[in-house]
Task: inverse folding
């Protein structure tokens, strides 16, 4: 039987409990995959691109090497039987995100490419995409994309994190035109990931940065309209952070920050509106974490954590409150180089499923069985 570890944070005690079955289902570790190709997949995104009520999936491929990006179509109940190349022109892609950029009610795509123009693709409403053009600076070393309404005008703006170049915010005019570009950070920054949230409860969206190369991680506060000059540090100051996610883990009304570090342990930094000096150790082991995502996986009202690890097992951390997490492996028999992990309800059962973007291996997904396990009990 599968052993789950219950991590009691701030304590040294670790207890093991037995479970009849894993709540995350992928028979044989390969049956549920997006296609049969083993690509250099860097990220994955999900949304209903063809308007049929089911969640479809977009993959970003290549990283430093040109490769085609794909859209996989859900035919119902989390079954993917057809796919399409997004663009005949291949690029070295690190990220792809879905959002309605032109306000027509369907989901468009933005890609973040390594030293190649970042593009956006318009959806025709049926899940077929055409390239509109470049967004942001030309040939930047982009590592991630975030779509958020950073200026509060009701449309989605595009944020690019660039490793070794200033980060960018491309402001949307509401129709998918991005002529206004705002830079933040410097050319020396090694920003890999970004989260957008109101961290100090002043009504404005702030920026949470994950930096590599032993650089300080920061929260950039939006002190005036699109002004990000005040920043708050979090972490040790020399972390190798590749991913951040924000949520209110301790239900105090302030957003906290979960980090995924490529070197060392992973922490939750607790926010109070002013600083992030208090922390929770949720993963003491060094698993070279490349991606961290947060959501309520078991529908108990508490925010859980997903970690994607390099050449190791990926783990879910189920939040039981009072700083305790149950550590559950997705599949102990598979150690893959997972670059990104994503969460979405693929089979419309009301429970969030888990999607992996794996480099040099199949891109797997795991169906969440917490709902079925509750019925069985």
Result:
């Amino acid at each position: 039987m599968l052993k789950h570890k219950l991590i009691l944070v701030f304590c040294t005690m670790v207890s093991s409990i037995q479970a009849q079955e894993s709540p995350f289902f992928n028979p044989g570790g390969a049956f549920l995959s997006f296609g049969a190709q083993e690509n250099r997949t860097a990220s994955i995104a999900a949304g209903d691109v063809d308007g049929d009520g089911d969640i479809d999936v977009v993959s970003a491929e290549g990283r430093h090497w040109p490769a085609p990006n794909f859209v996989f179509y859900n035919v119902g109940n989390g079954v993917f039987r057809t796919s399409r190349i997004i663009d005949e022109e291949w690029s070295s892609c690190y990220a792809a995100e879905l959002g309605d950029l032109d306000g027509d009610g369907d989901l468009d795509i933005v890609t973040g490419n390594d030293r190649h123009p970042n593009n956006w693709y318009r959806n025709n409403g049926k899940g077929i995409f055409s390239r509109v053009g470049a967004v942001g600076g030309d040939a930047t070393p982009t590592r991630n994309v975030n779509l958020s309404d950073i200026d509060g005008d009701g449309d989605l703006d595009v944020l690019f994190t660039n490793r070794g170049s200033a980060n960018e915010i491309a402001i949307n005019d509401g129709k998918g035109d991005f002529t206004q570009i705002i830079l933040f950070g410097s050319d020396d920054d090694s920003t890999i990931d970004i989260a957008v949230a109101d961290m100090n409860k002043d009504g404005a969206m702030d920026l949470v940065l994950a930096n590599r190369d032993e650089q300080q991680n920061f929260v950039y506060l939006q002190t005036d309209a699109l002004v990000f000059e005040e920043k708050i540090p979090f972490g040790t100051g020399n972390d190798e952070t590749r991913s951040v996610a924000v949520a209110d883990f301790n239900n105090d009304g302030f957003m906290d920050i979960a980090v995924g570090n490529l070197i060392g342990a992973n922490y939750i930094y607790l926010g109070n509106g002013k600083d992030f000096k208090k922390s929770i150790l949720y993963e003491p082991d060094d698993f070279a974490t490349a991606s961290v995502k947060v959501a309520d996986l078991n529908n108990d009202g508490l925010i859980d954590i997903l970690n994607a690890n390099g050449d190791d097992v990926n783990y879910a951390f189920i939040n039981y409150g009072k700083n305790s997490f149950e550590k559950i492996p997705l599949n102990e028999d598979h150690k893959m180089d997972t670059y990104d992990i994503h969460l979405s309800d693929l089979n419309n059962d009301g429970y969030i499923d888990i999607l992996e973007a794996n480099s040099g291996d199949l891109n797997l997904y795991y169906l969440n069985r917490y709902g079925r396990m509750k019925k069985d009990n």
